Amino acid sequence: MRIIAISSGKGGVGKTTLACNLGLAIAEQNKRVLMIDGDLGLANVDIHFGVRPMHHLGDVLQGKSIKECITPLMKNIDLIAGGSGLVELTHLNAFQRRELINQVQDLQFSYDYAIIDTSSGIYEHVLHLNAVADECIIVLTQDPSSFADAYAMIKVLHQKYKLQNFKVVCNQMKGMRGEQLFIKFAEVVERFLSVRLSLLGSLPFDENLQKAQQQQRTIMRQTTNSPAAQIFREIAVELVAESDLSGAHNSFSENTSQRTSGLAAIFKPATGHA
Ligand SMILES: Nc1ncnc2c1ncn2[C@@H]1O[C@H](COP(=O)(O)OP(=O)(O)O)[C@@H](O)[C@H]1O
Ligand SMILES: [Mg+2]
After folding, report:
1. Which of 6, 17, 169, 217 best tests ligand 1's pocket when mutated (most atoms within 8 Å of CB)?
2. Could you tell me if residue 168 is inside a domain?
3. What is the pTM of this model?
4. In a 10 Å sphere around its CB, with 0-12 CB exposed, 13-18 middle and 19+ buried, how is residue 192 labelled?
5. What letter would DSSP give residue 270?
6. What is the maximal distance between C-alpha atoms in the chain?
7. Number of domains the chain is built from
8. Which domain holds residue 244?
9. Is residue 189 pLDDT above 60, yes or no?
10. Which atom of ligand 1 is nearest to the CA of 228?
11. For residue 226, what is the domain's CATH number?
C-alpha cells in the first residue's frame, strides 16, 4: 500500500477536493484505494462523496474492528471517515496505540493506495501523517498566505522529519499559469531549504468544482469530461506510473532514513517541537 498525504499550510485551498477526485481517478485505473479522512477538525471527505458513514476511526478506539469502520464508496474505493473521536488519537496509551497499529496493518494488503486528507496547518498529527507517507502533496494557491504557509509547512517537515521530496499541486489558478506560480515558489523554497519540489499538476479556478461539491458530488462523477476531471486523471496516471516504476512500497516493513517507521508513527506521541 502506497500512502499519499495531501496537505497545505492554509485551509480552503482545495485539499479535500483534490484528495477525493484523485482517489476516484486512481480507482478508475483499477487500483484499490482507501481514503482516510485525517482532518481531525473538519472531517468532510464523506460529504464530498455524499455518504453518511456509520462508523469512523474514533470508533476503533472504542473497540470496533477497523474493517467494520470502512465505508464503501464506489468500485475500488473505500473510506475510513474522520470524526470528533479522532482527536483522541493524539492521547493514546501504549496499549491503544498498539491495537490501532495492528488494525491498520491488517488493511495494507487490501489496498494499493491510501490517500490521506489532512487538516490545514502545522499540527503534530498532520506532520506525522506526512512523515509516514510515501508521497507528500502540498496544495498551493496564488493567495500570498497560502504561499507563506506552504513554505512553513515544508520547512517544518524538512527540519523535523528530514523529508526532502514534495509534490506540488497549484490550485484555483486565475490569470496565471500553475507553472509560473510553481517556479516562483520553488525558487524561494529551494534557496533556503535543501528539498526537491516537483509540479504534479495545476488546476484553474473552476466554479464547477464548487457546484459539484454543493451537490455532494465530486467533479469526477459529476462531469466526467470536464477539464478539471481530465487534470485529476492526468495527475493520477502520473502517480500510478511513478509508483509502478519504483515498485509498490510497503510502508509497514520499510523504514527509510527519510521518514519514521510506517503508519505506526501516526499513532505515536509527538517528539520534538514543530
Ligand atoms: N480549482 C478550484 N476552483 C474553484 N473552486 C475550488 C477549486 N478547488 C477547490 N475549490 C473550492 O474551494 C473550497 C475549499 O475546498 P476544499 O477542498 O474544501 O479545501 P480544503 O480541504 O483545503 O480546506 C470548496 O468550496 C471547493 O469547492
Ligand atoms: Mg479539507
Report:
1. 17
2. yes
3. 0.88
4. exposed
5. P
6. 53
7. 1
8. 2-257
9. yes
10. 1
11. 3.40.50.300
